[in-house]
Design a protein that fits this description.
With 212 residues, the chain is of the alpha/beta class. It has six helices and ten strands.
Amino acid sequence: MKAAVIEQRGAVGNIVYRDWPDPEIGPHEVLVQVKACAFNYLDLEVRRGMTGFLIETPWISSGGGAGVVEATGEEVTRARPGDHVVNTSGEDFSRAAWTLSEKKGVDICVNDIGGPTRVPALRAMTKNGRVVTCSASAGFDPQTDIRSIWTRKLRIIGTNDRTDDGITWLLEKIAAGRMKPVIDSVFPLSESQDARYKLEERWIFGKVVLTP
C-alpha cells in the first residue's frame, strides 16, 4: 500500500510518500480500508518529537482516520467487515463569535490549542457558559482574563478522554444532519507535506483532510 511516512522526527520535509507493507492483524485487531483522514495538531507534535509522544521512525501518524472494516481478528466482537468506523493564532475570534450569536455569547467553546486563544475563548462566552480545554499545542502557560470567568459565571473543564458512547452520539447527530463538520480543504495523500504545512501555519478554518 501507499503511505505518507515520517522518516525521522523534525521538519515537514521528513514526510515521504512511498510504499509501505500491507498490515497484518492480530486476534484483537481490526483491518480498516481508510477512506479519509483528518490531521490534528497532535500529528504535528508527534512529528516534532514532543515530550511524551516520542516515536520510533519510520512512522505513520494519524489519529483521525475513517473508513470501512475489511477484516477482523478472531477475538473481535464489536466490529465486522463492512462496518463504517472512525478513529477517533490570528484574529480575535471572540468578535466573530459575539457577532454570530447576536451579542449573546456562545454556550460552549472547545479550546484545543491554548496559548493566545485562551483569552478570546473566555471573551466569547455567554453567562454560565462552558470552556473545554483539551490541548496546549499553541502554548501551555497562556494569559488569562479572570474577569470573564467570574462576571459570566463560566465553567472551565479539562478533558483528555473520549468514550465510545460519546463518539456514537456525535456520529448519529452528523448522520441526522443536526451537526455538520467544517472542512477547510481536502488533499490527496501524495500531497501530505502541503496539507501538514497548511495546518502548521494555521492557514485553516476547519479540518484538513487527506484522501487516498
